[in-house]
Amino acid sequence: SSRVVEIQSQMSERAVELLGLPEDRPCLLLDVGCGSGLSGDYISDEGHYWIGMDISPAMLDVAVEREVEGDLLLADVGHGIPFRPGMFDGCISISAVQWLCNADKKSHSPPKRLYRFFSTLYTALARGSRAVLQLYPENSEQLELITAQAMRAGFTGGMVVDYPNSAKAKKFFLCLFVGASGTLPKGLGTECADGEETHQAKFTNERTRFRNAKGKSVKKSRDWILEKKERRRRQGKEVRADTKYTGRKRRPRF
């Protein structure tokens, strides 16, 4: 449903924001449990490149059908991240990592699978980069298990909780640092005595507005479409030629 898509997009946006990527160059990101590529769309719109991993062939088929810009890999992240060391400038994951806590097969040991995932992810990430994993933990034991295996693998960091006092809007982001430990970002909607919460929310909105003012093309505009096509050409993909009709509104059908 469109509501799910909207929540998914908001969480992708927040995860990428928490990565704190450099603004002056495109980055290569890993999307763990990329599904049909909704987070990837946001990453591409921001001018970055991505590779997505997912365990579901059906979801990846949808991503291919939607012509996402990233490269896709069918794989179980519990077996590890099969990329060369230091390859990625960051990693995001939306609603996926908690699945590693389930033992689907007799041979599956959740702590082992989590450690395999985190240790190989640590290697695949460039020094000084981050992984931001949004997850839906079933209970506090799961959170502790996941966090403990991440730390065992060499990560520093911890849990950023947005809107901790709201049953509906509360979201968990495991924010992990590779190498140099950064300061953990503040969760949205965390109240302070001096009303800092409203200030923080306002700051976020201002920043996104500022980002469009800074010369990013408005989504779905003609310029945005031309930029997207140009990016795809650079990736060696087949793209239709630009014409005067590119980005033009279609007449309503009756």
From TrEMBL:
Swiss-Prot/TrEMBL GO biological process terms: rRNA (guanine-N7)-methylation
Domain Methyltransferase type stretches: 30-106
Keywords: Cytoplasm, Methyltransferase, Nucleus, S-adenosyl-L-methionine, Transferase
Pfam families reported for this sequence: Methyltransf_11, WBS_methylT
GO MF terms held by the record: rRNA (guanine) methyltransferase activity
Residue ranges occupied by any 18S rRNA (guanine(1575)-N(7))-methyltransferase Bud23 C-terminal domain in the UniProt entry: 176-251
Catalytic activity: a guanosine in 18S rRNA + S-adenosyl-L-methionine = an N(7)-methylguanosine in 18S rRNA + S-adenosyl-L-homocysteine
Predominant cellular place of this UniProt entry's protein: cytoplasm
Bias-annotated ranges (Basic and acidic residues): 236-245
Localization in the cell: Cytoplasm; Nucleus
UniProt xrefs under InterPro entries: Bud23-like, Bud23_C, Methyltransf_11, SAM-dependent_MTases_sf
GO cellular component: cytoplasm; nucleolus
Chain residue ranges for the region called Disordered: 221-254
Entry function: S-adenosyl-L-methionine-dependent methyltransferase that specifically methylates the N(7) position of a guanine in 18S rRNA. Requires the methyltransferase adapter protein TRM112 for full rRNA methyltransferase activity. Involved in the pre-rRNA processing steps leading to small-subunit rRNA production independently of its RNA-modifying catalytic activity. Important for biogenesis end export of the 40S ribosomal subunit independent on its methyltransferase activity. Locus-specific steroid receptor coactivator.
Binding partners and assembly: Heterodimer with TRMT112; this heterodimerization is necessary for the metabolic stability and activity of the catalytic subunit BUD23. Interacts with GRIP1.
UniProt family annotation: Belongs to the class I-like SAM-binding methyltransferase superfamily. BUD23/WBSCR22 family.
Name of the protein this chain belongs to: 18S rRNA (guanine-N(7))-methyltransferase
Species for this entry: Pygoscelis papua (Gentoo penguin)
Lineage per the UniProt record: Eukaryota, Metazoa, Chordata, Craniata, Vertebrata
Gene giving rise to this polypeptide: Bud23
